[in-house]
Every structure is written in structure tokens, then in C-alpha cells.
């Protein structure tokens, strides 16, 4: 079995979070725990998209600034953003100031509202890609964890068809891991055993 590092408090954790308190806290308190709150799912989908080409640590460090800049990731509010708000976002040093990524959050808010109008809520639609349950994997090492799966491919295609941006399959799989649609904690991680 692969060795999982023992970190700050003596617990063994998944290797990816080794060496940084922010990562450890995120791993312990959020990563892989099932989320069915529409607002938080919308937030995480957009943060995963913002992470494209960057480290997840960069996004975690900017997370509170993102929440403030994007009105708590309320899709109804974001969907109505105009050019003045886009300009303000692009001037905000607290977030990733990439024009495509900023506009994607607005586009995604509009698409999210359409999903909610059609489906009644955002979470049943997203969770449908795993049959409404958490897929529990049994990896013994980080090298076994895939970057994408059949489920993330299907989610990516569906989201893109509905107009969402920055929703490639790799981004979707990271999102699925983050919100507990997939449990990819390695076998000897304390979180898996909890």
C-alpha cells in the first residue's frame, strides 16, 4: 500500500494535500463530502473553472475574495451583471482577472438559472451523473486516481450543451471529487476511514 504522509496533526492524509495548512483544512473539512446545496455547487463549479491552468492552492487563497466579488455566488444576482460590473471584476486583484473566466461565471449563472427553471433545482441535475450517489473508489495511491471518467465526460458534454463555460471533463472530475460525487480519498487516509 502506498505511503500517505503524516501531516500537521499526526493524521495520515491523501498525498495531494501534503505540506500546506490550507490544503489540509480543505481536505479535512470539505473535499469529498457530499454537497447538495445549489449555491455551493455553483460556487465550486466556477472555482474549479477558475483554477484551469493554475494551482488549486491559488484559488483556495482567493476563495473569500471570489465570494465577495461575485455576491456570494448567487446565480440570480450574477446573471444580471452588466459591463460596469465586468470592468470592476477585471480590476479586482483578489480574483483571477481573466476576461474569459470572469465572463464564464456570468454565462454559467444564466445557464444555472435555466437548469433550475427546467429541473426545479441545480443539485439533482448535477448528481444525476453519478446516479444520485457518491461513487466510492478504492485507490491505494494518488497515481491511480484518474483525471476524468465516463461520468465526468457525460457531465462535461451536458453542461457545455446547456451553455456552461470552463466545464471540460477534467474540470468536471475535479468538481465531482470536491463536492463528494466521487470519493477519491486513498485507502489509508484518515478521512476515508472516518
Structure characterization notes:
The chain has helices spanning 21-29, 38-51, 56-69, 75-78, 83-90, 99-119, 123-127, 150-161, 169-178, 190-193; strands spanning 135-136, 182-183. It contains ten helices and two strands, in the order αααααααβααβα. It is globular and about 50 Å long. 52% of the residues lie in helices and 2% in strands. The two termini are 19 Å apart. Helix 8 (150-161) packs across helix 9 (169-178). The protein has a two-stranded parallel ribbon with strand order 1-2. It has a single domain, classed as Hypothetical protein, domain 2 (Endonuclease III, domain 1). The mean pLDDT is 94. It has 194 residues and is mainly α.
**Annotation, overall tally of beta strands:** 2
**Residues in β-strands, percent:** under 5%
Indicate the overall shape.
globular
**Second CATH tier, the architecture:** Orthogonal Bundle
Mean pLDDT over all positions: 94
Estimated structural class: mainly alpha
How many DSSP helices?
A: 10
CATH topology: Endonuclease III, domain 1
Query: Largest beta sheet, briefly?
Result: 2 strands, parallel
Q: Find the CATH superfamily.
A: Hypothetical protein, domain 2
**Distance from first to last alpha carbon:** 19 Å
Provide the helix percentage.
40-55%
CATH first level: Mainly Alpha
* Secondary-structure element series: HHHHHHHEHHEH
Indicate the topology.
Elements: H1 21-29, H2 38-51, H3 56-69, H4 75-78, H5 83-90, H6 99-119, H7 123-127, E1 135-136, H8 150-161, H9 169-178, E2 182-183, H10 190-193
Parallel strand pairs: 1-2
Amino acid at each position: 500500500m502506498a505511503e500517505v504522509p503524516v501531516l500537521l496533526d499526526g493524521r495520515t492524509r491523501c498525498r495531494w494535500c501534503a505540506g500546506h495548512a490550507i490544503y489540509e483544512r480543505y481536505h479535512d473539512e470539505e473535499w469529498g463530502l457530499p454537497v447538495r446545496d445549489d449555491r455551493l455547487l455553483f460556487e465550486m463549479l466556477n472555482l474549479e473553472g477558475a483554477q484551469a491552468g493554475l494551482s488549486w492552492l491559488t484559488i483556495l487563497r482567493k476563495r473569500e475574495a471570489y465570494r465577495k466579488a461575485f455576491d456570494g455566488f448567487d446565480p440570480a444576482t450574477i446573471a444580471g451583471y452588466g459591463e460596469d460590473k465586468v470592468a470592476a471584476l477585471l480590476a479586482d486583484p483578489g480574483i483571477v482577472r481573466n476576461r474569459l473566466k470572469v465572463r464564464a461565471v456570468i454565462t454559467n449563472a444564466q445557464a444555472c438559472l435555466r437548469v433550475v427553471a427546467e429541473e426545479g433545482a441545480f443539485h439533482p441535475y448535477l448528481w444525476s451523473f453519478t446516479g444520485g450517489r457518491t461513487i466510492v473508489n478504492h485507490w491505494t495511491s494518488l497515481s491511480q486516481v484518474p483525471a476524468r471518467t465516463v461520468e465526468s465526460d457525460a457531465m462535461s458534454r451536458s453542461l457545455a450543451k446547456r451553455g456552461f463555460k470552463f466545464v471540460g471533463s477534467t474540470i468536471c472530475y475535479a468538481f465531482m471529487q470536491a463536492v463528494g460525487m466521487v470519493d477519491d480519498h486513498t485507502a489509508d487516509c484518515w478521512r476515508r476511514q472516518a
